[in-house]
Structure formats: structure tokens, C-alpha cells
């Protein structure tokens, strides 16, 4: 896999196009990009954003963004991989992190809608090694959710790459696309 080239002079738009999880990575380590006080505009350069936040080592930040991207790639699984896993003995639990309205439009068979109650149950009583796959519309929110669960001690979490939209296109065309 070719590594995208970004530099201190790359705009944040370019950084996020090259590394979609860069904002999450920067928020996690440097508290940049998560709220109005630490946010940035798409046209600001990476160096400009880091300078406003007194983060001086741009190379370290770029390396952190690249490493986080590689970790994101490792926790995603393709629709085909999920289809195969669902046929196996230790099939994962499916957690749908979309809104209730989206869940009503289209869903994977057996998926549970992630609610506050389900999250509380998971955190308090589920085995942290339970195989879990998060899913959403296009795979962005589910990657966030998978990262969150991993950060809270779950050890067997994956995210459906491309979301339910990719599943509909590659595995089951009877699931509506929206």
C-alpha cells in the first residue's frame, strides 16, 4: 500500500483526504479537532493548526497520523470477510451505530442497534473478548465506534469497511441503499 504524502504545508483538507482518520488521531493525542476551541478550517495548513496549539514537532504528528491510519486499516474487514465470519462457529455480534431512522431503512440481519442501554450493558457485563463488528452507512462512524470500544478494553472488535452500503453492493442487493 502506498503511503500518501503530506507535509507541514498540506491543508487540513489534503490531510483528511489522504488520512480520513487524521482528525480522530490528532484529537486523541494532541486534543486538536474535537471541538470549536480546538477545531480547524479545511484551508488551514497542518503547520498552522499545530502552531496555534503549541505542537512543535510536525514530523511526529505526521508519523502519528500515518500510524493511526495503519491501525484503522487493520481493524476494518471487507463485506466478504464479514459474510464468511458470520458463517463460522464463533460469529461476531453485529452492532449498528446508525440512527434509529437509518436502522429502519436498512439493516444487516441480526444486527443490534447501538443504544445507550446496550452500551451500558456491554460495558458492565459483556466479555471484553466477545467478537464484535460495528457497522454504519459508509464505514466512517463504525470505525469511530470500533476505536472507542477498543479504547475501552474490548479486544476483538472490527469495523465493516464501506458500511451497509458496501454490503448491499457486494453481498446482499436486497438491502436498500440510501
Defining key terms:
alpha/beta; Oxidized Rhodanese, domain 1; single chain; elongated; 2 domains; five-stranded parallel sheet; 178 residues; 5 strands; 9 helices
CATH superfamily of the largest domain: Rhodanese-like domain
Strand order of the main beta sheet, please?
1-5-4-2-3
Task: Give me the secondary-structure category.
Answer: alpha/beta
* Secondary-structure element pattern, one letter each: HHHHEHEHEHEHEH
How many angstroms separate the termini?
30 Å
What is the total tally of β strands?
A: 5
CATH architecture of the largest domain: 3-Layer(aba) Sandwich
Average of per-residue pLDDT values: 94
Largest sheet, described in full?
5 strands, parallel
Fraction in beta strands: 5-15%
- Which regions contain 5 or more consecutive residues with pLDDT less than 50? none
Helix content: 40-55%
Chain oligomer state:
single chain
**Can you identify the CATH class of the largest domain?**
Alpha Beta
CATH topology of the largest domain: the name is Oxidized Rhodanese, domain 1
Shape: elongated
Radius of gyration, rounded?
18 Å
> Number of folding domains?
2
User: Helix tally?
Assistant: 9
Short summary of the structure?
The chain has 178 residues and is α/β, with parallel strands linked by helices. Helix content is 48%, strand content 9%.
General description of the model:
This protein has 9 helices and 5 strands. It has a 5-stranded parallel β-sheet. The protein is of the alpha/beta class and 178 residues long. The radius of gyration is 18 Å and the shape is elongated. The longest helix has 18 residues, at 58-75.
